[in-house]
């Protein structure tokens, strides 16, 4: 069975049903086409291509489409006639650049430009098409379903060629898919196409990243997206760490019936590998749950393994996820043949507990801070559950500074947020900085744009006024404030006694390092011997050490 056969069978049985509508949200009626129209258009496309060249050797076709009904139509028409479709961007120059290393034999454009005959040279001869039973070749029947390009957010961008056998489980086992349009055709349903600025339209299914959904804001999610009267039947979130149950519950209005799925996978194995439907009773429960939402069960024909650092498969504990299966194999980059059952390393780490997988984070989201291993997802999860925070993201800036970016709710006080984080996080997980932002920046694929966050932090640093202490009294007051804040001393503590020792007051090496960094940021220069002074002397002696090391009599003159 191929995607073409799946589509052809379903469409032929329901010719008069509306297949696709495009609404420009400009007050005009949407443009709609039936399955009969689409089959006819597919036949016309085949005739057009056959009149412009020999199609016998063509096995990859690039589609360049503007947003609109033609994007769905062209993909559908090409799917019915040829083995492989590559769907392109709006910017044709960018499309050419992104696919310059791919052997695209034809480039079809919906602009007035001429369709181009590609110059790609096949590296396989007719003899190459036969292969061992233990391997799959890129030209092997039934062939490729489509070609796509990874986002590059979790590594170098890759071209991924997806065989029919690899994508069919996504369509047949779970009726949502990376190619949602083909699922609609398989079910003879209506595919609604909307421009990017569309809003306020009734939707029955949303497939998005958690970050993209958070852009609505928690109030709008609860009052509209997941309200009691919403038209949304299914919410499928994937591509990033799934929100905690506490966050999900805070998003749902009383009486909401939307079915929520956690979907997991990687583009290199046709996007999806596992899915988990959050039970209604779990969503409605008032009991606090410390566990994350599990990744769920594998799709049809999918093999999921968790391996430890030595490469051995484990049944309990923490390890990296590997995905594959006999036919769940895609071709990456210039691969022309891969062994059946190839298992791809995902770079994602999970914890196995009681037969369930719980996502920890990507390999690059694990850091070593103050001598301890830290999953940055922990910081984000704790921060998001605080009442003052609407959404947030965490970065490890320059491999040395842990930054928490927050989209706040009304009335946020940064000092209060630090105190709350100290209550719920281990010392080595408390962020160095909290930066307020209006909204989380997104990549074109709906994920958090870490590069943009780093730029925002750099601008934030450059915009901060340079510290200038006005005399000994101000230095003493700020040292007292930092001492009390980092040690979480009672709020009614007016002043710290001169003889107070840091370690005896509840401090430790982590908090001492934190105080050391905050003092150097306050002064604006490094202070030799400061950390030792914090660990072994009183606050008054720490103060004297700063005075003696950094300031001259002229610097300390009152202004």
TrEMBL record:
Gene3D superfamilies: 3.30.300.30, N-terminal domain of ligase-like. Keywords: Lipid metabolism. Residues 473-550 form the Carrier domain. The keyword Lipid metabolism applies. GO terms for biological process: amino acid activation for nonribosomal peptide biosynthetic process; lipid metabolic process. Residues 114-133 are annotated as: Disordered. Pfam families: AMP-binding (PF00501), AMP-binding_C (PF13193), PP-binding (PF00550). InterPro entries: AMP-bd_C, AMP-bd_C_sf, AMP-binding_CS, AMP-dep_synth/lig_dom, ANL_N_sf, Beta-ala_Activ/Resist, PP-bd_ACP. Belongs to the ATP-dependent AMP-binding enzyme family. PANTHER family: BETA-ALANINE-ACTIVATING ENZYME (PTHR44394). This is Carrier domain-containing protein.
